[in-house]
Specification:
By secondary structure, the chain is α/β, with parallel strands linked by helices. It has 2 domains: about 200 residues, Spore Coat Polysaccharide Biosynthesis Protein SpsA, Chain A, CATH 3.90.550; about 90 residues, no CATH class. The chain has 12 helices and 10 strands.
């Protein structure tokens, strides 16, 4: 019935897999858990290989890193059952009925999305605060709120999809670095009229990253977005892109470019400091997008 698919990279998934296995067994459903390691450091491979001894669990390591999109496609092809539960490795179910809740709503014509949470307590390490603060304020949404914009609220951290639909759509493997593979996937679901049913069945995000890593991944997501906007109509789905298009229409891009060029270092220092401001972060992302779009134009002309 259910294939639980976990792409793994440099994270200890033993506790997560043991808990999922226990829940799946209690749910009295046919299941498998497949963990596919995207060429993690040897340390993580050695500790995670323990889960391969668990019943209905398979752990495999790739010889080369293939990226967030390709590894999900590979997992889908490996799955034996008709429903696929994808989740991030750096997460943990909030309840003991996480699997049961999904099993109760399985549908051959719909995708289920359960949501994401963060710890209510701010992290002890100050360098993790920026990621925790952003996630808590911007990514945590109830099912009711997510249902108001069902496709733009979709993320790949915690969803169930019929295998048939997953194999028809797949993830865009041109995306090699972090960011927006969920945006494009959600857009494809919308185009095909596949309903997304939002549930209050969250996974807690446990893999907080340092402020510098989180900021760099945010920049990578914008670089992906610049590439994707050449192939897809995305501005209706993404707030940042809507502002980018409006600024372009109003002739503001040259001014934003100059502002970002002059103040980027100052803005970045504030975001990496003790009190990051989310409005400043929004402006930084817009500036970064305009700045890099201009660089792409210059490169194309050279």
């Amino acid at each position: 019935m259910l294939s639980i698919l976990i792409p793994v990279y440099n994270f200890d998934v033993r506790s997560l897999v043991v808990r999922l296995q226990h829940q799946a067994e209690n749910s009295m459903i046919a299941f498998e858990i497949i963990c596919l390691d995207d060429n993690s450091d040897l340390h993580y491979f050695e500790i995670n290989r323990e889960i391969d001894a668990l019943s209905n669990v398979k752990f495999t390591r790739l010889n080369n890193n293939i990226g967030r999109a390709a590894i999900r496609n590979r997992l889908a092809a490996m799955a034996a059952y008709e429903y696929l539960l994808f989740m991030d490795c750096d997460s943990m179910p909030e309840t003991d009925v996480f699997i049961f809740n999904y099993a109760a709503f399985l549908s051959a014509n719909a995708v289920l999305y359960g949501g994401r949470t963060y710890s209510p307590e701010k992290p002890f390490k100050k360098d993790l605060f920026f990621h925790w603060f952003y996630g808590s304020k911007r990514e945590v949404r109830t099912a009711q709120l997510r249902s108001e914009n069902p496709y733009s609220s979709f993320m790949t951290n915690n969803f169930v999809i019929p295998k048939k639909i997953m194999l028809e759509i797949g993830f865009d493997e041109s995306l090699k670095q972090y960011g927006h593979e969920d945006t494009v996937f959600g857009l494809e679901l919308k185009k095909r009229g596949v309903h997304i049913h939002h549930l209050n069945n969250p996974l807690r995000h446990t893999g907080l990253e340092t402020a510098s890593v989180f900021l760099r991944k945010s920049e990578q997501a914008i670089e992906n977005l610049l590439m994707l906007m050449q192939k897809h109509e995305l501005h209706a789905e993404i707030k940042l892109l809507r502002y980018f298009v409006k600024a372009q229409k109003w002739g503001l891009h040259p001014f934003i470019y100059l502002w970002f060029y002059l103040f980027r270092t100052f803005l970045k220092a504030g975001l990496l400091g003790a009190n990051p401001n989310l409005r400043t972060f929004d402006l930084y992302k817009l500036g970064y997008m305009v700045y890099n779009k201009s660089k792409l134009k210059k490169f194309a002309k050279s």
